[in-house]
Amino acid sequence: MSDILQERQSSYLKLTINRPEASNALSLDLFGELSEILSENREDPDLKSVVVTGQGNKCFAAGGDVKELNNVRSNEEINQMISIGRQALNTIRFYPVPVIALINGHALGGGAELALSCDYRIAVESASLGFSQSKLNITTAWGGVIDLIDLVGNSKALLILLEGNAFSAEKAKEWGMVDWVVPALEDGLKTLDSKLDSLDRCSSKVIRGYKSIINQNRKKHHRSLEKIETETFIQTWSDADHWNTVEKLFSQSPS
To answer: To which protein family does this belong (predicted)?
Structure first.
């Protein structure tokens, strides 16, 4: 079964992360599939928006697939992990039409990076967001710190990143990380339909024209900071503090 479900509805494409048994964790294969699907559809003249959500009502995406990433040790493997994840999220960031995250549940670690790579975010009240990387003694790998700074500013970004705590959808909206908060998923779908209707009233040339300008501005910030984010992640991922933390967490987990 595919890790991503595709549903085409007139002018928009809905992509659902389909790993509920793993809390919709982000595997490298999933990232590759996401990049491939988006690349296949980017030139479709009838496409006006993309929606990304998670299967079920518990998790949007619970972060990177820990069981898989725990085996990433060599420099070659680390760089591959960074490259595959960042390529997928950059495809979202710089996509020619708007990408909307429908946050149906928890978006943590890499899941928060995925949510913030999108242009808009709709979250249910029960959802939570958090950059939990610091609790594993690592930093972000896929551009999340850059998006966070753009949305909330340096001071709040540093607080969020260092504390590593999950916080409510309402708090995320208050801080500028979420655009709309809705009581339940059904309400989120109604809000989504409303936003999609607004986009549908615009011509494809207008949508793609404005999006190209936004993309160029966003690319400038990412291109200037990607290198230092990569270097910092490699240093922290390879450090004994990270692996000691991982070993401790795994030893405490039920077998």
So the answer is: Belongs to the enoyl-CoA hydratase/isomerase family.
User: How far is 63 from 130, CA to CA, in rounded Å?
Assistant: 10
What's this model's pTM, rounded to 2 decimal places?
A: 0.96
For 35-47, what is each residue's pLDDT tens digit? 999 999 999 999 9
Q: Quote the tokens at residue 247.
A: 């070993």
pLDDT at 254: 58
Contacting residues for 46 by C-beta, under 8 A, at least 6 apart: 10, 11, 204
Return the exposure string of 185-209: e unless at least 16 CB atoms fall within 10 Å of the residue's CB, then b.
Answer: beebbebbeebbeebeeeeeeebbe
Domains of the chain (ranges plus CATH)? 4-185 (3.90.226.10)
Residues 136-168 have pLDDT tens digits of 999 999 999 999 999 999 999 999 999 999 999
91-122: buried (b, 16+ CB within 10 Å) or exposed (e) per residue?
Answer: bbbbbbbbbbbbbbbbbbbbbbbbbbbbbbbb
